[in-house]
User: Fold these one by one.
Assistant:
Number 1:
Amino acid sequence: MTSANAAGIAALQAALAAEHAAVYGYGVVGAMTTGASETLARADWLAHQEARDNLEQMLLKLGATPVAASPAYQLPFTVTGQAAAIRLAAVLEDGVTQAYLGLVAVAEQTLRSFGAQAMQAPANRAVAWRGTTLAFPGMPTT
Amino acid sequence: MLSRRQLLAASPTTLPLILALSACKGPAVLSGPPPVSSQTQTLLHAVTAELNLIWIYSKTMAEYSGLGPTLAPLLAEHEAHLARLRARVIEPPGKKTPDTATARPAIGRTEQAALAQVKNAEQAAVAAQLGRLAGASPSLAQLYASIATSEATHVTVLASRIGQGQAAGS
């Protein structure tokens, strides 16, 4: 994948930033959940770490410096219990899905295809947390 | 050659006559419509594919009313997909946007078989949407990718429902 242009690298960096945020956010989700939800949070946390590492490798192969994680992130709402933690998990997955959709807009076909396929895992995880599907995952709601 | 003054002075009824008598060329009425671009062709195929999925869902729900609670929300999303795809079509001359399903397979003989059939149709739809990405404009590619992702979540929901049915039957 040596033909990726600046737009492709920027979209990969945005996806990586979303994965960093998800890894951080799942730390909160895991801390505020118990039982099956906690087990699911742990599995999803690991999945995001794997995706993050994969994106970092892709960027390094393209000669780019992968964007670093922030020391802390502003959560979209206060998480004080399991219900809010579950809601946060769905929001995190929506954010990652949206970031991968950004890759689909680039001209380079390999990245476009990668982005489209990479959307599926976070969208499915969002369904697991939310309990319902969406008509247009990753798209801004109108 | 007509002067600008002559053209402006001509009434709407005499203008075509003047143009016909002058050396001006009008549209070539006997030539066919311009060829449909591959991007439009792909979009029209996507519309037909959604119509086919909607047909399978509707028919399955009509035959197995117990599947309604599972299938109705997914069907509603397919109807949203169809509306969004249709909104992107600029109807080429001489070519209508499809409005009927082209594939009407027999529905499975049991509830479980019918569910599996819907799941397989969704799986095939995901692959077809991903195949439409090449050559699509960025915004259309994003629409195809988002619909493919939605359909992939449908596959998961349907697989889970099939698993529940198998567990209940065993």
Number 2:
Amino acid sequence: MGDLSESLALALGPVIGLDAKLMDIVTLSLRVSLSAVLLSALLALPLGALLAVGNFAGRRTLTVVVNGFMGLPAVVVGLLVYLLLSRAGPLGPLGLLFTPMAMVIAQAILVAPLLAALTRQTVADAWREYQEQLHSLGATTRQAISTLLWDTRYSLFTVMLAGFGRAIAEVGAVMIVGGNIDGVTRVMTTSIALETSKGDLPLALSLGLILVVLVLTINALAYVTGVWARRRFG
Amino acid sequence: MHTIFPLTLSGVAFAPNQVPVLADIDLRIDAGAHTVILGANGSGKSALMRLMHGLLKPTAGRILWNGSESRPRAQCLVFQRPVMLRRSALANVAYGLQVAGVPSARRNAQARAALERVGLTHLADRPARVLSGGEQQRVALARAWALEPHILFLDEPTASLDPAAARSVEQVIVDIHRAGASIVMTTHNLGQARRLADEIIFLHAGRITERTPAGDFFRRPQSSEARSFLQGELP
């Protein structure tokens, strides 16, 4: 208990003083995870909508696979991306391993199934309501998909925040492909793991605090947006 | 002008999963009339409308537009509870034009004109989903009208509206008919059928039992099913 309260007192120091090094770590975390979610969404949202609306062979199988991959272990994704990007790997020549870009790629892959599965669910619900109307107006599948993605935009914002939550909280993938290099690829989760094992509990704890506050803020933001959108647009 | 009429249904049946919904439907719809389809719940009114519109495919028989099987663009269906997209009333009307392939430069002006004809210019920029039921139905009618249909199908367009809203929707339907479109609609409101219909098609258990000019129908229906329907329905 003494450890915890002592660490807590020390932890608040850097948070309040906005220690420059700490801020770099937080900024990198945000940058990597935001980029990962946006990159992932470019593919995962249309894929999820296609799974909801499309009528093609293998749709059910693909849905099961996507749903199953929601629980993909971060370390396994890290390992796969590591193999792809390592010098002997197929994408080795790009020299991306141990860079923030590698971390973005790993997190994008990690959250893609989550984004696609939740998007499929959201769009499928809307499709039940819209189907007859859109068919009646003569919309093609492609038009229906873009209409549904636009009309569920507030729900999809929440979906993307869920993806962001998963990305910023994971440690396994970024540790493997980023390497936790000080000042280059060190993010909040990897620092927490490192500082804890080194015994620097105050720094670990202050990073942990920031992480929790960030995640809470994001969820509050999602909630408020949802309420506002429903009131404004029905 | 290129015509899509007559719409002919010959020997049409609809029986999804072997459940008979409609059978032996022979029907010819010509330009200009206001036709009301009456019948009890489950008599197949909505299915008949969706078949004619093209949302459903008949399990037997043929549906032809001026002799052709291809479904023409110049026909619309407005649902009992129209789906409003999460955007403004104006954007909802423009959306129909966009899907129909109208170039974006002309969409907004056409959509505005359609909203004006249904008396909703003042609500053009409001989110469509927060409008009242009657206003939403008028937006849906504007969305259909903007497409300049030669025939408009209406599935119980006023069933979930209060009397005042129903009256304003009825007025729009009359205006669309006057502007030259044929109307085929279902309703449960016999007063509305009397006010609007030129002719009545009566459906019972998936079959057409009669097709009669509206005045005659309400004075002396020809089929016993229609007679008992009218006696049961009228207060």
